[in-house]
Hints:
Layout: H1 5-24, E1 38-42, E2 45-46, E3 51-57, E4 64-70, E5 84-89, E6 96-102, E7 116-129, E8 136-141, E9 145-146, E10 149-150
Parallel strand pairs: 2-9, 6-7
Antiparallel strand pairs: 1-3, 3-6, 4-5, 4-7, 7-8, 9-10
Amino acid sequence: MRVPAIERVALLVVLAATAAAAASCGGSKPAASCERFCLTVEPSGGDTRTIFTFQGRGWEPRSSVRASYGPYCPPQRVCAAVLFTRAIPTGADGSFSFGFRNGPASLRLRGRERGHGVGGGPVRFSQRAGPPGQRRLVRRTAHYTVDGVRY
């Protein structure tokens, strides 16, 4: 079946816009055009001693975002399927910060436990957003690398 040229162009424009919107609010550095539910992580890579800082902006203000992650599991190991969650408050502007160490629990964050987590990635962030009766679940994940493994 042959698709007319004008329909092919319209489809390419829609696909490009969708890809740009998806890229603008995730990854280690979202595009400057990201306005809602933006998420970044710094640094983009490290080892099990590295503290990754996730920064969110444009989320529902004066609410909370839920961070979900699993236990640390060394590469080529089978580990328990446990889910840890932590509620992170958002500011008046919808921003938040969450520190995370992708490593064993023995590597605690010493005095920085509140608002931080230790475990295994990936770390997923979610929040119910929208007007009452029309709320939807928004999810974001920013990718990072630990000892050559991408999360």
